[in-house]
């Protein structure tokens, strides 16, 4: 449910090796070059399913709904946003349903979402692979100030529904609130980088699934935009930060958190569907199980093998319009392991 920060208790993670050979940009004709700076010892990565694989993970279905109908995303931009940053995030969201391999070559965002779509409800209906950007609303005047709480974020949604021809789409809609770099949030950086829940009818009038993600670029990039920034205590001889695929630590970091929260919101929208643990108020969900894993060989604090372009920018997924993204893997109910389309041993 949350991007937990426990991951950073083992933050001696893999980072960019200065001695790696240059790699080529992925095209339709050229296979991407993989690199994994400071791979873990072979004894840790010998298994094809080392990446978070476990028969002990008790991920169970609790009979609640999943988002099996076409998913309509209603975007709420809270604060001041550069148009280029908005376009980058929208390109990621629209890449989820970009199935044409010429428009988004493999490994693609759409292939990454395929793992999410393996989850079903009690009727056997899968999470939808159709994700649509159904509407946008800009709250550029900071209607609830520059510090938000878990309750005031619901007031932001209510304000958007009242102020914009945003339908109250309680069947297919999810509401994604993205806060700008100057906005603080309750528990942001300390305990969460993003979270999802559902609105209270007493505040919004309806029960609507929503997710919030903040831009950590100036507040805690070493926590919420890792591995594009590293904690100060890892300086000196520690691993170096990786270069973000689109040149912005805060927004590139947000995109992986957005992917994490959308995957969990789709598989556990009312916090009564897919999760591990006995407490629905503190569930371990399909993104939590793979936090910090981006490629083969990951685990034990290593992000795994990823790719980089000629400029040294790191990514593991291709999107529409030539975009590249670095997005964490998701727990597969079939493999019972973390999975992603950039796996080199699949």
Automatic annotation (TrEMBL):
Pfam families the record matches: Phi_1 (PF04674)
UniProt signal peptide: 1-17
Alphabetized InterPro entries for the sequence: EXORDIUM-like
Chief location category: secreted
Key words of the record: Apoplast, Secreted, Signal
Location of this chain's protein in the cell: Secreted, Extracellular space, Apoplast
GO CC annotations on file: apoplast
Domain of life assignment: Eukaryota
Family: Belongs to the EXORDIUM family.
Full protein name: Protein EXORDIUM-like 5
Native species: Abeliophyllum distichum
